[in-house]
Amino acid sequence: MNLQAFMAEDFMLNESFVRYCLQSNDEDVAFWNDWIARNPHKRPETEKAREWVLRLGVRLNASEKQEEFNKLRAMIETDRVQVTRRKNYLPYVAAAAMFAGAIVGAWLWKKQPHTERSAAMAYTTYHADSVRKQVILADGSTVILNCNSTLKVPASFNQQERHLILQGEALYDVQKDDKRPFTVTAGQATVQVLGTVFKVRAYLFENNVQVSLLSGKVNVAANNAATALLPGQMVKTSQGGLIAGTFDTARESDWRSGRLLFKDASLQEIANLLEYWYGVKVHVAPRNYQAIHFNGQFVNKSLSEVMASITYITNLKINISGNELFINQ
């Protein structure tokens, strides 16, 4: 399966691409975000196919989807699809293939060749749970992977390109290489650099991606918008594109060194810092709390160690479940 030769209608007939459009499978979303970022010349075709998927899928009811899918399968099996007919008819038939649902979806997926997809999905995956992890890449670049974060490094990294996929948060210190631009895909955002230090935050519970630049220069693209950042600037994704702003460079410097500082922190400030630092969604039970003024400094400490100190001094009750933290008194 040569994806380079695909036109919009070909992408529409690919079940993996359809699941990417519908955001219904994490592996497919990661694969197509990665592939499109590495093949920007195919973006017009993929965008056209995605638009057709979303538009035509609404027009067909369940019985129509099944009927059109059966027509498509019969045409393929009898080898009667003519090129001229294909261009006119395929967008409508493709909708049936895409939205046929559980009845025929599993059959089509099993029949598809997986050669290129399997090769492209050959990753080394790094995951940081309750403590940070430092990753040294093949090109000498380093990554500080924050808690509750996952970094995928393709097997082809540093051969013709340098591309990574992030879920969560990471700080990148990138070795300069003019011939191999360094790109990171996080959700719908793509960051491209040559050599710089920048941070990407893309936790699922926050529903946006934030890119902060510490040094050098980066280009950020998301939701049909693009911008270049200078040191001290940041952007956050939104449905309308990108929102520009600045960030606290001193706080980011502390984050990079692993120094978590509470200075006369209130309950809400404690919750905000824990959420920012450890990549967990913090819930504070609604009630009347006694005033809290917490002070403390922690260097490269795990969430459980910090929680133990906070609960001992403040008498707060803190429980963690998965990637969520609950505070009560």
From TrEMBL:
Report the superkingdom from the record: Bacteria
Pfam families per record: FecR, FecR_C
Occurrences of domain Protein FecR C-terminal (ranges): 259-327
GO MF term set: sigma factor antagonist activity
- InterPro entries the record matches: FecR, FecR_C, Ferrdict_sens_TM
Q: Which UniProt keywords apply?
A: Membrane, Transmembrane, Transmembrane helix
Which parts pass through the membrane? 89-109
Tell me which residues make up the FecR protein domain: 130-219
Q: What is this protein called?
A: DUF4974 domain-containing protein
In its UniProt entry, the species of origin is given as: Chitinophaga eiseniae
